[in-house]
Amino acid sequence: MTKIRAAITAVGGFLPDFVLSNKELEKLVDTTDEWILSRTGISERRILKGEGKGTSDMCAEAVKVLCAKRGIDPMEIDLLICGTVTPDFPFPATANVICDKVGAKNAWGFDVAAACSGFMFGLVTASKFIETGTHKKVVVVGGDKMSSIIDYSDRATCVIFGDGAGAVLLEPTTEEFGIMDSILKTDGSGRQFLHQKSGGSVSPATHETVDAKQHFVYQEGQAVFKFAVTNMAEVSAEIMDKNNLKPDDIAWLVPHQANKRIIDATANRMGLASEKVMLNIQKYGNTTAGTLPLCLFDYEKQLKKGDNIILAAFGGGFTWGAVYIKWAYNS
Ligand code: UT7
């Protein structure tokens, strides 16, 4: 039987207009442009403004861009998976809201909560629905309104994160393109270093939890950094070995944009020159589930049919992994 693979056939993205620069952050917290740039690689990030605007609004825009590019009607989408750590509501799923906002009336959908690996976990899940032949058009969207869970008086976290969303369309192919392999991992013991303390079933929101700022991101940066730098590099090297890929065989690394130093360490471990590494952290900061599809969105025109691409991510949970893709089209 001919093997069906899931190929990315279109990419969409959305960034809010409002730019929060390092200089502006200098006015909010005790930090400097120099510190942020040298320790993270970030110059500015985008913030979603507007009463009642949530993650679904950015994701819906990204999906609309994708549909327009591919020339499809949202009614053709069979399934939409949304990776996010800032859902519009605890329930219903943001995927449902996105489907409603774009008019994907024939789609079903669900959210994937894997923090910075949310898009990647969603992508691999989606690929299985294509590979089994049951679904023909699956959208995976990764987006986060991180500004909704960031304490802008905490310099350890507010300089890092930004808002944004990106989306890809997966379609079946019997050619040697698409998602070729993946390695995904979780380690729940890492949750203590990066989480949101309250608002869930363990500690429902109360006046006290809000006063204690427990609805914001809690991160022990150095500890997360150590796990991230080791595991993202390790899993990227592992997927290369598993698929017998040498540095020369790889056209692009698409790394999660959490810290330029983590990205550099991963590229070094893989033996890749910096020209092969997608980078937009300087413009957008860490958009959590948005980083990988937004990289693809920014670099889409430079991608060529047949390019070997490695996606790599690490995030809260801990969650991490790598995906090997053979790019399926020329823009
Ligand atoms: O995407 C999800 C996964 N998350 C990550 O991968 C994030 C991983 N962690 C990191 O990227 C880095 O740990 C951070 C960027 C969060 C922090 O950088 P760092 O080099 O690890 O800094 P640090 O926490 O070790 O702090 C070094 C110093 C401290 O001062 P003292 O104790 O040496 O006097 C901090 O208080 O830098 C201070 N500091 C700051 N100074 C100016 C921390 N944040 C700031 C700041 N501006 N914004």
Structure description:
The chain has 331 residues and is α/β, with parallel strands linked by helices. It has helices at 22-28, 33-40, 55-70, 94-102, 118-131, 155-158, 207-211, 221-242, 260-270, 281-284, 291-299, and strands at residues 5-14, 18-21, 44-47, 79-83, 108-112, 138-145, 163-173, 178-186, 194-196, 217-219, 252-255, 308-315, 319-326. The strands form four sheets. Strands 1-7-6-4-5 form a five-stranded mixed β-sheet, sandwiched between helices. Strands 8-13-12-11 form a four-stranded mixed β-sheet, with helices on both faces. α4 links the parallel β4 (79-83) and β5. It is globular and about 60 Å long. The two termini are 31 Å apart. Oxa(dethia)-CoA binds at residues 31, 35-36, 39-40, 116, 155-156, 159-160, 221-222, 224-225, 228, 258-259, 262, 286, 314-316.
| Strand-pairing-aware structural class | alpha/beta
Q: How many helices? A: 11
Using the coordinates above, name the CATH class of the largest domain: Alpha Beta
H and E string: EEHHEHEHEHEHEEEHEHEHHHEE
Report the span from N to C terminus.
31 Å
Which stretches are poorly predicted, pLDDT < 50 over at least 5 residues? none
